[in-house]
Design a protein that fits this description.
There is one protein chain. The protein is an alpha+beta fold and 63 residues long. The protein has one domain: Alpha-Beta Plaits. The strands form two sheets. A two-stranded antiparallel sheet has the order 1-4. Strands 2-3 form a two-stranded antiparallel ribbon. A hairpin with a 5-residue loop joins strand 2 and strand 3. It binds iron/sulfur cluster. The site of iron/sulfur cluster (SF4) has 13 residues, from helix 1. Iron/sulfur cluster binds next to helix 1. Ferredoxins are iron-sulfur proteins that transfer electrons in a wide variety of metabolic reactions.
Length: 63
């Protein structure tokens, strides 16, 4: 399974990634980002779109 990493020290909780890939990224009850580090291969396009949409480039795709 492919992996994704988010630098939570850089993340500003804008949630664009949540809109792009809602099955991988979500906001918790404190409005902070949570995500699944492992995601299904079928979601690679959505996770790439999430990374592209992040205004602070906090999301890195790992294989
Ligand atoms: S789009 Fe970027 S800054 Fe916004 S919640 Fe996602 S990782 Fe954080």
């Amino acid at each position: 399974m492919p992996h994704v990493s988010v630098d939570l020290d850089v993340c500003e909780d804008h949630a664009q990634c949540v809109f792009a890939a809602p099955t991988v990224f979500r906001m918790n009850d404190d409005d902070r980002l949570e995500y699944d580090a492992e995601y299904d291969e079928d979601l690679r396009f959505d996770v790439q779109a999430a990374a592209d949409s992040c205004p602070v480039q906090a999301i890195k795709l790992l294989d």
